[in-house]
Each structure stands twice: as structure tokens, then as C-alpha cells.
Amino acid sequence: MKSASRTGNAYVAILAGGSGTRMGNPDKPKQFLMLGSKPILVHTVEKFCVSGEFDAVLVLCPETWVQQTKDLLAKYSPHYAQEVTVIAGGATRNDTVTNAVSFIEDSFPVDDDTVLVTHDAVRPFVTHRIIADNLEAARTYGACDTVIPATDTIVESVDAATISSIPNRRDLYQGQTPQSFNLLKLKGLMGSLSEEEKELLTDACKVFVLRGEKVSLVMGEPDNIKITYPQDMRLASALVGA
Asked: Are strands 38-39 and 173-182 parallel, antiparallel or unpaired?
């Protein structure tokens, strides 16, 4: 799985805990919907398996979907299924990332240079360049976030009724994934959170920002879309030629 030219342990946690409600299918999480000839999740998993950058690929999904996830990987990606470990996620995104960190520490070698890449299961168009840039930035800076420059003016409204401010668009970016970290640094910062902070923070990069740690920016791609709504699926189908 891992390229022989790579140094330092690197792991990826593919976060597959979303539901299908906003896609109009509450009975099936959106990552399991078909995109062309295979489920969205399988497209995503294969991008990381084929990259040759990782010592292990983890998929974290709802506990009730663990076996179905294994079955789908075996059916639609038998070549890579044996390289993927499927485990249960947590109640929140941060809980899921914590589960990934704990599992990696219990199962694989970890040292001061180990990197954890986290990625949305429903972003199947991540590129090798984005993955490689995440690994480099995480090793250099300790944390990074994948972003693209904001193209629309962003309007802030505190009361959801009137404009509070209009920030300068030149200073704004739209967040994507992967988000990547020095694993032990991430573990330490997440362990420092109070229960109140845990309830407010739903993004691992925010943990670093809250603690005054710098987070490097990695340029994403407009096509690195998150499939959330039916219109996203139509665009994704066009991108895969389905």
C-alpha cells in the first residue's frame, strides 16, 4: 500500500458517518449511494489506496453499517478491500476522529512524526496532488486544511435576519477536506478540550485554532465537491460520466 520512497508513518481516516436525510434518502447514508458503477464511499477509498502514501486506510462509519461497509468494499473493490480497516465512528465528528486516533495507537506504529489524514467519505474527487500536499504540510507545520478561495461574497448575520458584517472576500476561503495533522499533537490538543468546548467544536482544525496553533492552507480543487444534496449528485454523475 505504502510507497517505498515515503518516510514516516501516515494513516488516513475516511469519515463515513453522514446520513442520507439531505439527499432525500433517510434510510441509507449518502456515502453508500451509487455513483456510476460503485458507491460513493468506494470511489473515495480507492483514491487513498491507489496513492501509495499510507500505512493503513481506515473507514469509520455508524456501528450498524460496519458489516455492510465491509461487504460493499469486498463487492465493488475486491482488490483494495483487504487493505481497508472498517471500524465504528462516534456520535460526533470529533468523537469519530478520536476513535481513529485510539485505534491507530492500539494497532499500528506511532511516533512523533506520524501523520493522520482525515477526509469526508462523500468527497470522491480528491486528487493525488491534494493528498500529497496534505502530507507535506502536516509534516512541516503539524496541521493543515484544504481550502479554495471564496468566489461569492460572504455575508454574516448573527440574528439570521439582518447583516452583521460583510468580510473582505479576499481573506476568505471555503473549507474542504482532507484535514491533516501530526497525530500525537492532534491527540494532545483534543484531550485538552473541556466538555463545553467539545460541544462547540465540530472540526479538528478549530481545535488547533482555539489553542493558538497555526494551521497551514493547502489549495484544493473546485471539483473536490462534497456530495450532500441531490444537485451535488447530478454534478458528481457528470464528473464520472455516469
From this structure: unpaired
Pairing of β 115-120 and β 84-88: unpaired
Can you tell me the distance from the alpha carbon of 119 to that of 44, in angstroms, rounded to the nearest whole number?
9
Note the pLDDT tens digit of each residue in 129-165.
Answer: 999 999 999 999 999 999 999 999 999 999 999 999 9
How far is residue 44's CA from residue 40's CA, in Å, rounded to a whole number? 7
Put simply, whether the predicted model's pTM sits higher than 0.85 gets the answer yes
Burial letters 170-183, b for 16+ CB under 10 A, else e? eeeeeebbbbbbbb
The Cα–Cα gap between 84 and 155 comes to: 41
- Model confidence at 28, in pLDDT bands (50, 70, 90)? confident
- What count of other Cβ atoms lies within 10 Å of the Cβ of residue 109? 9
Bond prior to 178 in cis (omega within 30° of 0): yes
Cα–Cα distance for residue pair 12/170, rounded to 1 Å: 31
How far apart, in whole angstroms, are the C-alpha atoms of residue 107 and residue 118? 18
